[in-house]
Amino acid sequence: MLDDFLTRAAFAATGLSLATGPLGSFVVWRRMAYFGDATAHAAILGVALALATDLPIGLGTLVVALAMAVTVASLAAKGWAMDTTLGVLAHSALAFGLVAVSFFPTVRTDLSSYLFGDILAVSRTDLALIWGGSLLVLALIAWRWQALLTATLNEDLAHAAGIRPDRERLVLVIALALVVAVALKVVGALLIAAMLIIPAAAARSLARTPEAMALGATAIGMVAGIGGLALSLWQDTPAGPSIIVVAAALFALGSLRPRP
Amino acid sequence: MSLLSASHICVRFGAEEVLHDVSLSLAPGEIVTILGPNGSGKSTLLRALLGILPVAQGSVSRAPGLRLGYIPQRLMIDRTMPMTVRRFLSLPARVSDQAAAEALARTGMAGHEADQMTQLSGGQLQRVLLARALLGKPQVLMLDEPTQGLDQPGEAAFYRLIEEVRRDTGAAVLMVSHDLHVVMAASDRVICLNGHICCEGTPRVVSTAPEYRALFGLGTQGALALYRHEHDHDHADEPHNHHHHHHDHTHA
Asked: What's the pLDDT score for residue B221?
């Protein structure tokens, strides 16, 4: 069944949605959109690092994304002006990454696959990594779910209940870096944040509880994944951006409906 | 026996000392109000007692296994987060539907389970926060300016509710306020704070529900007297004049 590249692509998109649905909901609730961007853009720098050190691409991406996410989180904790700081970090990470990979001629020809993903070229190994990483993120978020929600609502309330908000933030930071590493192949560095935010935002208008929103975001992500692949096949459009186009269309549809 | 106590604590934000040499102790079942002008360190003291802020000197101690219910000054729920009242009551510890319904009934919010948190009025939100705190069967309830944004009848009703809770559950209550009504309405003991403890004592009049109106003015005067005579700082810019004894329900 997995011999067909389209089937593998569909499984890759579905697997990724398992993680991006719940994590994306937290990104929306905590207003971490730019944070997601900075971490995702750092993935290109991770590609350069992996090529320079002969590490697997996924590992290089994970290391750099994690470093970026931890840096941003600790700057936020120190009370930096986050909008500007994140803007600087997100765009510099991308620019540095693009300059760094230009030293590797093989990537130069293949750069767009890192920027926009190459879901139609997903191998069985990639698929295993995508599902493994996504399930790991899902398990991490499910394990911390109650504490994460409480800390997201109000940090003092969490503190009074014996929850450490800084520790919960770290859980999200690690989850984000993991998602960036596995999503690079699917939607690419430029669209990872979109895959986190758009399905979650689309699910908002349909949901009355946080759980419903996270599940809805997962479902919408899956529909966008399959729909985007179909669009790509039908109109011969690039697959990664097509997935986001479908997600955005679903968001537009959802926002026509009044909030419950 | 003391449930919660602070011994000579100092709290600093950078070089600025926000609290200096503050000691207090909370006994079971008593209602203590920390009163002081804006910027006097009231919320800071509460946050230090909760362990949210580190103390630079001194120590905070809790009775072993102390169950603490906290009601923050403001709960701003982001509009992007869907959250029903029922779901909120199950954070962080899940509670049964029956326990949730009882807690809501206790605080006058029966039947509001399905409401979205962001749609509640200020008074309703406070009652839901109180219901959530009660679900933890607290020995100590801590409230940070619980009636901010409520109108006077709403405020009075909320403090009556706090008194009932104390009567029914025996929980000690530690409240923060810049509002003199509190002193009159409910407290056993008042601590005047302005960076340090200026004065501490029993308010002369403790109100009960039927005499509420009669006590309103008297209580305020008593509290004002208490408030004025021992402060050694200038609080001239603090507006107290909205606490007159006549009601003119123009906002109703």
From this structure: 43
CA separation for the pair B116, B129 (Å, rounded): 13
- φ and ψ of B168, to 5 deg: -80, -35
Residue in A156, A163, A260, A255 with CA at minimum distance from that of residue A212: A260
Report the complex ipTM.
0.88
| Most distant pair of Cα atoms in chain A: their distance | 55
Does residue B192 contact residue B226 with C-beta atoms inside 8 Å?
yes
Domains along the sequence of chain A with CATH: 5-255 (1.10.3470.10)
β-pair partners for B142: B70, B174
- CATH architecture of the domain B1-68+183-252 equals 3-Layer(aba) Sandwich (3.40)
CA distance B70 to chain A (A): 6
Which uninterrupted H or E stretch holds B7?
strand B4-13
Q: B142 and chain A: CB distance < 8 Å anywhere?
A: yes
Q: Which of A29, A153, A160 sits opposite B80 (nearest CB)?
A: A29
Tokens representing residue B133 in the block: 């705190």
Q: Indicate the DSSP class of residue B223.
A: H
Which tens digits make up the pLDDT trace of A50-91?
A: 888 888 888 999 999 999 988 888 887 776 667 788 888 888
